[in-house]
Amino acid sequence: MSKFTIRKMRQPDDYAAVASLLNLIWSEPTTAERLQKDEDSIPPGKLHYNEEGQLMGWDRPKWVAEDEHGQVVGYAIAWRAPWTEPGELSHTVVVRPENRGIGIGRGLYDALRQWAFEVRASRLIDYMRETDEKSLAFAERRGYVKERHTFESVLDLAAFDGGTLYDSVNEAEQAGIRFITLADEPGEDNERKLYELYKITHPDIPGYSGSFPWFEEWKKWSIGQAGVRPEWIHIAKDGDRYIGVVTLQQNEQTRAMYHEFTGVLPEYRGRRIALALKMLGVQTARACQVPYLRTHNDSMNGPMLRINRDLIGFRAEPGSYKMVCELK
After folding, report:
1. What is the spatial distance between Cα 295 and Cα 4, in angstroms, rounded to a whole number?
2. CB burial class (10 A; 0-12, 13-18, 19+) of residue 72?
3. Where are the transmembrane segments (predicted)?
4. Are 153 and 293 in contact (CB under 8 A)?
């Protein structure tokens, strides 16, 4: 029987090993530098409880598993943000394939779950690939149930021919809609207009829960993220009003782009404005010689799935299940 040790993650020493582990399960790769930069953007954890005794605040405890040679072979993190639904904790547990089956995943999960009980969390959430049958079974044995299904989609830009889809841009412009990028209208006043657009449209995403971040945190984790540039944020305007947006984010390793967000105000939907914004995003990606675009959609988001898959031709990829465990 191989020996292993569960301990708290050491920062920054363990970042390289943790990035390697996360790259086993994430659609797009990350780096030690990116993980450290994100972590440095988060102040020390500060948990508290609301009037109903539900867990509030934020924290991000992390554990690793070491084998008998001192190599990191597993990782676990539990986290919540200030805007997370009261009582909830999200988490991730990953073990190298060659080290599975000897109790490492169980040891990491037990440490994570014990911490969850100590802070009186009421709900645990993880996202698992639909093709990872062993991990899904691991979760179900511990009381998790499938709550939602999200789909991955990829568009190969070298083989893409938008054809008449680009007409949606002209149609919107003829109806009085203007298209700009955030680079065309820089400054905090316009960033706050964009923030309000995000804030109004985010709750319409199927499965979205919790509150919305305040402006400074939204900016940090959306338009301020690594790989996001003002010229890659396409905005639809009606007069001076921001009514739709597509934001692209580029991965420095693959050079691919990800649709970080797409949103159109409810009263402007059904007019092919989202399609026009997405086609402008495609044009931007092709101009940057991006190999592919990646996005994901909830199974209940029929209108966006229709745009991505049926109209534009994104290729379906294996998705993920939202796995939920109610703590007693």
Report:
1. 37
2. buried
3. none
4. no
Q: Domains in the chain, start-ordered, CATH in brackets?
A: 4-121 (3.40.630.30), 153-321 (3.40.630.30)
Determine how many CB atoms are found less than 10 A away from the CB of residue 125. 19
The amino acid sitting at 192 is R
pTM of the model: 0.92
d(CA 306, CA 312): 9
Task: Write the single-letter amino acid at 89.
Answer: L
In 203-272, where does DSSP find H-type helix?
Answer: 215-221
The SS3 of residue 295 is strand
CA distance 211 to 56: 12
Token pair, residue 59, equals: 């924290």
Helix 167-174 × helix 273-287 angle, to 10°? 130
